[in-house]
Amino acid sequence: MNGIDVSEFNGDVDWQTAKNAGLQFAILRCGYGSDTFNQDDKTFTRNVAECERLSIPYGIYLYSYALNTENAKSELAHILRLVKGHKPQFPVYLDMEDADGYKAAHGMPSPRTLTDIIHTVCSGLKSAGYLAGYYVNKDWYDHFIYPKELENYVFWYARPGIARPDKECGVWQSSFPETGGHWPGADIS
Fold it and tell me: Which residues partner with 92 through β-bridges?
């Protein structure tokens, strides 16, 4: 299946053109960090509406800034506030990368704490009736979390540049915008 993940950084996606080009699913960012309105993704509402209008199956993700489980509870509330009333066909994910260096700059949590953060959010999502998952790359999977403890959740694996995933995963992000794809500026899964 061909899918993309998008956020406000991709601008207004032409969903009809994407569907016509073979898009089969999308994973939409709802926001980032704690449950404050200014951290909602500015394109989330439009992206959900367009996917629903065009019958494009979608999942949802929130980019995490949590440094502890108390922060994770606020991130869970953030997700639940935004997904209320929607029925994503793919999981709702917690994106645990540290692309902007925030976690490293504020005292990178231990693997125990990072695993607990994922579990806090994912177990809350499951309790609310959603299929729950988490997103990490190979380095995070191998060094920053305890993946065996997260087997009840869907793993979205960021590992471009290989012919097939080297880890068991529900969704594999196989390329980033600079490595090509049909949808410029979007990560390909």
Answer: 60, 132
Q: Where is pLDDT greater, at 167 or 179?
A: 167
> The tokens of 65 are what?
């800034």
Domains defined along the chain, listed by start? 3-188 (3.20.20.80)
What does the DSSP 8-state code read for residue 172? E
Region of poorest pLDDT, from 50-54, 65-69, 185-189: 185-189
Contacts 24+ apart (CB under 8 A), 74-77: 74/33, 74/34, 74/35, 75/33, 75/34, 75/35, 75/121, 76/120, 76/121, 76/124, 76/125, 77/35
Distance CA 27, CA 30 (A): 9
DSSP letter assigned to residue 135: E
Residues 73/94, Cβ–Cβ less than 8 Å = no
pTM here is: 0.87
